[in-house]
Specification:
464 residues, alpha+beta, 3-stranded antiparallel sheet, 17 helices, 34% helix
């Protein structure tokens, strides 16, 4: 098992930060930040005292580490070979998903090993999302582990206007492994646990009871289940076959070094996403690939947030931040006290309505409901960060705006004038534009109800 200290969840970034911004003399926050225990499963490294380049691992090849941990029983089913051949005939698809996995696999494998789970579990995001962190199913499952909204709430994954932790690499991985361990404890069998992850534990339990009543076997292959779940474990075993012996399938796996790909840096002052990428000397695309949970163009300090950076870029970020003299963030937020359109809000605050509409993803013809949290440009001279109560609980609710009143030559009569009532309501949890990723099929996934296992949802199975 790999040494825990190799998971480089780095630094409270005590980074010699004086003079990092002209309006922010220190990288510190007056907010009452709280350490999230889920992000503390591994020791933290202080970049001001330690060098990430000195980290060593038992092997320089992560694939070796993965193979050594394979422990799932073989599945004697023709579906395994069918799924393997499906992948072999699509080398470009396999190569793209393998390349994406290189950012996340070390952390996932380390967590799987820490929990003494079979390392085949680390390959499950290939089946769920092809390791696409922006993957979104038609039923709103999100991230590399494809969490449904309700299951994400059950596992304390924040979903608000500023971030969706179902897409967060660290938080969603820990939640998924928690869920899988719970399912294994319930069923005592990894194949049944995987079926329950896909179909729901309630459905698997009912299928087992039906077979027991008929005095039939209750193993994975004997249960009556939907086609999606029937093929779920074979798909995972197909990826295992390729990782186990890629040469046999004429596939070349990408080189994966057996050390952390990223470090996690604490955010202790609000910072714009593009500023963070600039300081790390990364493209916005590369930065977002590691930080897909942020819904807005700003990362908030008030909720103990972290940003992930490739460990070589973390040192650049440290150096560039120390000499940065401009404001770190150009955004703030407010809670709307009355229902109004973006144009009305913009007029009241002397702002551009298109800016409000674009950054908050408000469609035309919609009105912001009272109590919503709205991101707006930070006024000149304002240096305070977005407060914790908005950062933790901010939601954006939209109503369909009332149609304009028809023009009339007669003045309206006070006794008959009434306010029109909106006929429809739209609710936006994140207020951000979510990308739907293509999938090889629109199959069903039951990660939407961890207690009942009912009400399956379409899940992204492959993202080219």
């Amino acid at each position: 098992m790999m040494v825990r200290s190799l998971v480089l969840i780095a630094s409270a970034v005590v980074l010699a930060l004086s003079g990092c911004a002209s309006t922010s003399p220190e990288w510190s926050s007056s907010s009452d930040t709280r350490r999230d225990p889920r992000a503390a499963n591994a020791p933290r490294v202080d970049l001001s005292k330690q060098s990430v380049s000195s980290i060593m691992a038992p092997s320089n090849d992560l694939w070796i580490q993965i193979r050594q941990g394979f422990a799932l029983p073989e599945l004697d089913s023709p579906l395994v070979e069918q799924q393997t051949q499906w992948l072999v005939k699509r080398p470009d698809y396999v190569n793209r998903s393998m390349a994406r996995s290189s950012r996340y696999l070390f952390y996932i494998v380390e967590e799987v090993n820490r929990r003494n789970m079979p390392t085949e579990i680390a390959l499950l995001p290939f089946v769920e999302s092809a390791f696409n962190p922006e993957a979104k199913s038609t039923a709103k499952a999100m991230g590399i582990w494809q969490f449904m909204p309700r299951t994400g709430q059950d596992f304390k994954l924040t979903q608000n206007v500023f971030r969706d932790e179902r897409r967060d690499v660290l938080q969603s991985t820990n939640a998924a492994l928690d869920y899988l361990q719970r399912l294994y404890k319930q069923f005592g069998d990894w194949q049944l646990a995987l079926a329950a992850y896909n179909w729901g534990e309630g459905n698997v339990a009912k299928a087992i009871k039906r077979n027991q009543a008929l005095r039939k076997p209750t193993n994975y292959q004997s249960l009556t289940m939907p086609r999606e779940t029937r093929e779920y474990v074979p798909k995972l075993m197909a990826y295992k076959n390729i990782v186990q012996n890629p040469a046999a399938y004429n596939i070349v796996l990408p080189e994966l070094e057996n050390h952390p790909y990223f470090v996690a840096i604490d955010v202790t002052r609000d910072i714009d996403v593009d500023v963070a990428a600039q300081l790390a000397e990364m493209s916005l695309e590369d930065f977002r690939n590691l930080n897909p949970a942020f819904n807005k163009p700003v990362i908030l300090a008030a909720t103990d947030q972290q940003m992930l950076l490739p460990f070589a870029r973390a040192e650049l970020f440290q150096m560039n931040l120390a000499s940065y003299t401009k404001p770190l963030s150009s955004w703030t937020a407010l809670k709307v006290t009355k229902s109004e359109t973006p144009e009305q809000l913009a007029t009241r605050l002397a702002l551009n309505p298109e800016t409000i509409r674009d950054v908050n993803n408000i469609p035309r013809g919609m009105r912001i409901r009272a109590g919503s949290t709205v991101l707006i440009p930070r006024p000149p001279g304002k240096d305070s960060d977005i407060p914790q109560y908005l950062a933790e609980h901010g939601q954006l609710k939209l109503d369909k705006a009332a149609p304009p009143k028809p023009k009339t030559s007669k003045p309206p009569q006070a006794s008959t004038a009434t306010k029109s009532t909106p006929k429809s309501t739209v609710s936006s949890q994140t207020g951000s534009t979510q990308q739907k990723s293509p999938s090889t099929n629109s199959a069903k996934s039951a990660k939407n109800g961890t207690s009942s296992g009912s009400g399956a949802s379409a899940s992204v199975k492959a993202a080219p």
